[in-house]
Write a structure and sequence with these properties.
This protein is of the alpha/beta class. The chain has two domains: 144 residues, Vaccinia Virus protein VP39 (Rossmann fold, 3-Layer(aba) Sandwich), CATH 3.40.50.150; 91 residues, no CATH class. The protein has nine helices and nine strands. The longest helix is centred in the last third of the chain and has 17 residues. The two termini are 29 Å apart. It holds the Pfam family Methyltransf_23.
Length: 272
C-alpha cells in the first residue's frame, strides 16, 4: 500500500498530461442520449486521475465508472480512498495485456480511457484488441501513453552497471515498445487499423517536463520505477543517487534558479 501512497504523492507528470488531454479532447466523447454511460479507465493506479479529471466530465447520471489496474494494491487503495464518496465508481484488478478480458466486460463500455499505462504493455496489438472487445459497437476511447522517454535510456545505462544488473535482468519488459521507433505514430495507426478501429486519430506530441530539485525527481522515480522494490532500503538510496548521476551525465539537468545548491531536471519525451 505504501507504493500506492507514494505514487499518488509523486505522479506530477501523469496528472499534468491527463489534465491537459482531457481539457482538450474531453468534449469529443459521444455521450449516450440518456446519459447512462458506462466508462472504464485502464491503469487507474491510485485512482486520483480517474476521480479528479475523468469523473467530473461524465454525464451527471452516468451509470458506472470502472477504474482498473494490474496492481491489486493500487486497486484496493483506490477503493478504500474513493469508494465511499463515489458510489458509482468501482475499482477492479485487470491486466489489459491478458489474452482475454472478463466476459462481464465484453462489449460493455461506451467509453474507455487510459492515462500513462499502455507503454507498460509490450504487445500493443493485444492491448488494443482487448480495448476494442470491451467497447460497445459505437463506443470510443481516449488513450494517452508514452511513445518514448529518456527514463528508459537511464534504465538501460543502470542495467549495465555490475551492482544493478542482477536486479534488472528483465529490463526489456519495462521499456516502452515504441521507444526506438522512427515513426511511432504511423506504427500505432497500423495497429489500430489491424484491430478494426474506425474514425481514429493518432497524434504524437513533443513534450517537456521539468522536475524542480533532486529530491523531487527521486520521489517521482521511486513512485514508478519497477525495480526499486527489489532492493534493500540502503540499495534504494544508492540506486537513486546513480539514477541522478546518470541523468546529469546525459545532459538532462541544469542549475536551479530557485536554489543555487540544487538542480532542475529536463525531461523531453514523446506522448501519444
Amino acid at each position: 500500500m505504501n507504493q500506492a501512497v507514494l505514487y499518488q504523492r509523486a505522479n506530477q507528470v501523469q496528472r499534468h498530461d491527463a489534465r491537459m488531454v482531457i481539457r482538450e479532447y474531453g468534449n469529443m466523447f459521444q455521450w449516450r442520449i440518456d446519459g447512462k454511460d458506462r466508462v472504464m479507465d485502464i491503469g487507474c493506479g491510485s485512482g486520483d486521475v480517474t476521480i479528479d479529471f475523468l469523473e467530473p466530465i461524465l454525464p451527471s447520471n452516468y451509470e458506472k465508472l470502472v477504474g482498473s489496474d494490474i496492481s491489486l494494491k493500487m486497486v484496493n487503495y483506490a477503493a478504500d480512498t474513493y469508494g465511499k464518496t463515489h458510489p458509482k465508481v468501482e475499482f477492479d484488478q485487470l491486466d489489459i495485456g491478458d489474452d482475454v478480458m472478463p466476459k462481464r466486460y465484453l462489449e460493455h463500455f461506451n467509453h474507455i480511457t487510459s492515462f500513462y499505462c499502455l507503454h507498460w504493455v509490450q504487445d500493443q496489438r493485444k492491448a488494443l484488441r482487448n480495448i476494442y472487445d470491451m467497447l460497445e459497437g459505437d463506443g470510443d476511447c481516449l488513450l494517452v501513453f508514452l511513445a518514448s522517454n529518456p527514463v528508459f535510456e537511464v534504465y538501460k545505462k543502470l542495467s549495465q552497471m555490475d551492482k544493478w544488473a542482477p536486479y534488472m535482468k528483465d529490463l526489456d519488459k519495462y521499456i516502452a515498445p515504441l521507444q526506438n521507433s522512427t515513426n511511432p505514430g504511423q506504427e500505432y495507426e497500423s495497429f489500430m487499423l489491424e484491430t478494426g478501429f474506425k474514425n481514429y486519430s493518432v497524434e504524437v506530441r513533443q513534450q517537456i517536463f521539468v522536475y524542480e530539485g533532486t529530491d523531487n525527481l527521486k520521489e517521482n522515480v521511486k513512485a514508478v520505477n519497477p525495480f526499486i522494490e527489489r532492493l534493500s532500503r540502503k540499495q534504494q538510496a544508492e540506486f537513486l543517487d546513480d539514477y541522478i548521476q546518470t541523468v546529469i551525465d546525459m545532459d538532462l539537468s541544469e542549475s536551479n534558479p530557485d536554489d543555487p545548491e540544487d538542480l532542475r531536471f529536463i525531461t523531453p519525451y514523446k506522448l501519444f
